[in-house]
Design a protein that fits this description.
Layout lengths: L8 H26 L9 H10 L8 E4 L6 E3 L4 E5 H5 L3 H18 L3 H30 L2 H38 L8 H38 L1
Parallel strand pairs: 1-3
Antiparallel strand pairs: 2-3
Helix pairs in contact: 1-7, 2-4, 4-6, 4-7, 5-6, 6-7
Length: about 230
Amino acid sequence: MMLFFHPMDFLIIPAFLLSLWAQFRVSGTFNKWSEVRASSGMTGYEAARRMLDRNGLHDVPIEPVPGKLSDHYDPIARVVRLSEPVYYENSISAISVACHEVGHAIQHQQHYPALVMRHRMFPVVRFASGIAPFLLIAGFLFQATGLIGAGIIFFAAAVAFQLVTLPVEFNASNRARDIMVAEGFIRSDEERGVAKVLNAAALTYVAAALISLLELIKYILIFTQSRED
């Protein structure tokens, strides 16, 4: 049984390198467009607040949080949290990220199917992602196909969660871009910068999902081979 190396690793290693490059790219792209002031002069907070209000989400607050690229929408507390560079600055990066997070709030309001599914999966996935590595490691060490099989099932749940996350993220970005243009948050010549910021962030989710999917295939192949042996 190939525990430490498998032919699938020839695909997993490049995917891992892609993930590292994606992380580097999102940071570099954010920094680059953080230096470009939005023509509207709006800060991330102002853009997010206006976008929320114009979609009837007057009761959704916006809070600054420490850190960089720590921006997120909390569906339980129903609050948009923006990192301080995004909250206070009026750059292309700031309003792009802020409006993307508001896109998630709008998805929540409209019960976007993929987001609803993601929320329902989360409690199960939190448990599954925690136990799957232990089951897989134990199964490999003791050559116990039952443990490997159980680990694969739990790991598959985590992979499914990552795959469902992809349309959620892309849809939030599309909503952000459409509203930013329609409401005059950016000019047409600034769309390029917005697209680069949001696409760089989306690539990190794609790379992470790709790695997990390839690893799942690897475990399934190992499991199948062990049963044939």
